[in-house]
Task: structure prediction
Amino acid sequence: MTRAEQPTASPPAPDDALVADSRERAVRALLRRPQVKRLWSAQLVGGVGDVLALLVLVLLALQASVVEQAFGGGYRGAAFAVATVFGVRILATLLFGAVLLGPLTSLTSQDGPLDRRWTMVGADGLRAALLIVAPLWIDWTPGNALALLLVTAFVAGVAERFWTVSREGAAPALLPGPPPEGASIRPLPDHLDALRRLSLRTGFVAIPLAALALVAAALCNNLLGTGIEWFGEHQAALASYVAAGLFAASLSVVTFLELPGARTPRPRSPLEGLRRPRHAAGPDKGRTGALPLLVFAGASVAGAVAAAVAVSVLHAKDLGGGPVLFGLMVGALTGGVVVGIRTAPALLPSLSRRRMLALTLAFTGLALLAAGLVPDVTSVLLILALAGAGAGMAANIAHALLDQETEEQRRSRVTDHLHAVVRVYVGLGAVVAPVFAAAIGPHRLENGKFVFAHGGAAFTLMLVGALLLPVAALVLAKVDDRSGVPLRQDLRDALLGGDDPGPTPAGTGFFIALEGGDGAGKSTQAEALADWIREKGHEVVLTREPGATPVGKRLRSILLDVSSAGLSHRAEALLYAADRAEHVDTVVRPALERGAVVISDRYIDSSVAYQGAGRDLSPTEIARINRWATAGLVPNLTVLLDVAPETARERFTEAPDRLESEPAEFHARVRSGFLTLAAADPGRYLVVDAGQEPEAVTTVIRHRLDRVLPLSEAEIAAREEARRKAEEEARRKAEEEAARKAEEERLERERQEQLAKLRAEEEERKRRELEEAQRREAERQAEEARLRAEEARRRAEEERQRLLAEEKARAEEEARLPGDRLRR
Ligand code: TYD
Result:
């Protein structure tokens, strides 16, 4: 199984593939396909245009509401105008999802009458046209401009849906087909999942980009305004034209796109999955029951950001700014979110993710509160960027925790649920926040020198921020996985945890660690897997911790003997680490260097979970000690058998050892310690619900191993043999087919020849008959002619006879006449 011997078509070493996040690579691989990349760039450009258009319409509606004194005019009227733009846009999306989605999907499906490409081109063209005229309504139709702008927002919203549904219908057909069997030993990337990831990400990144575009366009607009009066009066005009230009750009990309005809995926409404997923036992609450609260927390933070974005146009106005400040505020908030999402996994990775979620929620809340309080523009922008970053982190962590709460098979359903709830909160936030701002209105408090003057938007920001604080408290109170350990201590440990030595390569073998609480069924699974992997032709070394070496056995007896009760926690941690050091040095590493598959029943994670999360020691420090003890040897795959401690306890058959005798809270902390480790590095972990039947657990693990385990030499040979056989078979079939064809052709030829011969004979026969008939006719005619000639001759003879007779008679007459005369 050395790398040099792997088939040349193999991708890079499997352990590299595992360490890097395979999902990330799947997304990047998609973008290397030219057609996908084109469609994606159209989505990005059109998406930026769409968000920019919405921001522009908000600005224009605000302007129109002031001119027209809409909704009673003043601060309230302006705030209502903003709320209606968002409301109309959401209405368009909802209406589309509820009413138009089904019919539209059949219209634009493979054999529907609407061509996807031309639908997209039409939607882009329409929106470009709408955005070209939008800034003119205020001049053209005084009194009706706001209404027309709302219609514009609605139509643009529907056009966006048409575009998106067409794209979603077309995109899957551009994906690569499944790779040929055995061509890859890397996990087969799930293309559809990658596509969804990509389009979600693109949709999101479009928001800060649009804000940036707004800032740039508004600055140029101001510059133009100094020379051209019209631009001075229409501060959002240039941004509107930029949006139109972006739609035109998307249109031109889409026009030249080759979209293969493909079956339409099932139509998806934006609210699909809103109801909490259920399984046989009732509503899905997740592995540890935290699912509903995590969804709520994630959606709340998203709703808070949407609310902040929705009131920022009013807040910008209150702070004396215009479109530029509005763009900067939206950019700071949403750009912060993007940064937060990206940095969340790397931020204090050793801190419990649940605690981190509570902290980031609280941080976001406090930042929004401060953003409402502070009157200084620069500080507001900075604070909004921080609020955005906090929100991004909270969202990312909530998502990662949700992944932990669910089995791999159920994950997409839970994700759908999260996204649907998030959409609802975002919609509510965007509409309700400006309405709130309208209801509160501006207030001014004066107390001597101290002046406290704030608009309704500022109060709304504070309120939204304040509302996030109880959510954070709820997370900490209800789903904390480190209860008993003070948050302060955890935080300090996480902050002080230094850099760790990087993992060292594990030779050419494959290292699998099985982890989980007591009674999770690790030994059973380890044996089942060892058998299965051996059958695949690998050398398998099945080992365990503690106690796989002679020294380890002595350490094990010290560690597990109930008589060691009261052993200091640090000593316990060091003894496990000592056992591990010996184990890695004398068993694991040599086997990996030989190229064997090593399955270890427990590894470092057990120490981090038991001695770190379970006891009061710092998980970071435990991890560090163990990295030193093992010289940084990291498993290629860690299978975490997750089971509720109560379920596991029922499986104990022998008297509990020293650790098994620990109280229930200890085991609960151990469990979440394992889950936290898994959440930090999803690419390297497989979390399996160990409450199921052992066979079901084995199947799940085998499924994953099938994708990540490198091929053994025997397997490579077997596959090569199978491939050769298949080729041979194909060749044989082809030859047989060719022979059969040749025979058929020969028979056909013969048949044709026979036919031709028969035809020739028939013709010959006919020709002869004809000749015969002609000959007979000629004879008949000759006979007739002969008879006629005979007749003529006979007649001539008769004539001659008659003439002769007449002659003779006349002669006789004459002879008789002279005698008479004489006689007379
Ligand atoms: P294990 O051999 O899995 O127990 P059993 O023989 O009962 O199946 O592990 C022994 C105990 O040691 C178990 O309760 C967990 C504990 N342990 C730690 O606390 N830290 C460690 O690093 C390891 C490897 C085990």
